[in-house]
């Protein structure tokens, strides 16, 4: 039984390390092997930015890797784009024989007619929360502009962060996590 775990946080100022202990404990409690970790600091809202998630799906589709389970800390780690996008993503994994398991939404692992409804409710709540956060941010920016605050990068500045190509990391149960 091969297991993968997907960890995601939205910014570089956050760390996915707080998601890892619960995932490792779940694997241990359910006699699952050590998961291969796919981790990234990317927004779940912007399409095309979740490169590790896309790589995981591509590896499943091409047969390069086989996983029976994908464990996430919460469904909103996969997507905040709403009901259709979340259900489609779950279906994309399950078509490849990979069952999605959420630590926070334990009912997602259960098959049955209520599963899709509960997943839809969780996806709706994630999108609603994201939309509200966006509205508050935009309102704050408007207020700052009205007060004469100059927003954005200083003139002539450029990104200095280099993107590294990430490889899956296998964490050993009981070992300290690596800060990625």
Explain this structure to me?
The protein is an alpha/beta fold. It has a single domain (3-147, 164-170), classed as Rossmann fold, CATH 3.40.50.1390. The protein has helices at residues 20-29, 51-62, 83-95, 113-146, and strands at residues 3-9, 36-41, 69-72, 99-102, 169-170. The chain has a 5-stranded mixed β-sheet, covered by helices on one side. It is globular, with a radius of gyration of 18 Å. The chain starts with a strand and ends in a 10-residue tail after the last strand. The model is unreliable at 175-180 (pLDDT under 50).
Principal-axes geometry comes out as: globular
Second-tier CATH architecture:
3-Layer(aba) Sandwich
Summing up helix and strand content along with how strands pair, one would put the structural category as alpha/beta
Largest sheet strand order: 4-3-1-2-5
CATH superfamily: Resolvase, N-terminal catalytic domain
Helix-strand topology string: EHEHEHEHE
CATH class type: Alpha Beta
Would you give the CATH topology? Rossmann fold
Question: How much is the average pLDDT?
Answer: 79
Cα(first) to Cα(last) distance is 26 Å
Question: What is the gyration radius calculated from CA atoms?
Answer: 18 Å
Largest sheet: 5 strands, mixed
The figure for the number of domains is: 1
Q: What is the tally of beta strands? A: 5
Helical content band? 25-40%
The proportion of strand residues reads 5-15%
Helix run count: 4
* Low-pLDDT stretches: 175-180
């Amino acid at each position: 039984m091969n297991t993968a775990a997907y960890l995601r946080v939205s910014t570089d100022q956050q760390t996915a390390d707080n998601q890892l202990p619960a995932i490792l404990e779940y694997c241990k409690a359910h006699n699952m092997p050590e998961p291969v970790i796919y981790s990234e600091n990317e927004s779940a809202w912007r399409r095309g930015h979740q490169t590790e998630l896309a790589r995981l799906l591509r590896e499943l589709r091409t047969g390069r890797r086989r996983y029976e389970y994908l464990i996430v800390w919460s469904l909103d780690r996969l997507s905040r784009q709403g009901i259709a996008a979340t259900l489609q993503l779950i279906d994309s994994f399950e078509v490849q024989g990979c069952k999605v398991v959420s630590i926070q939404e334990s009912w997602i692992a259960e098959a049955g007619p209520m599963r899709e409804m509960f997943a839809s409710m969780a996806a709706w709540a994630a999108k609603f929360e994201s939309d509200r956060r966006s509205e508050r941010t935009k309102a704050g920016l408007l207020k700052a502009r009205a007060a004469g605050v100059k927003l954005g990068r200083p003139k002539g500045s450029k990104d200095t962060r280099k993107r590294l190509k990430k490889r899956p990391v296998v964490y050993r149960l009981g070992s300290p996590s690596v800060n990625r």
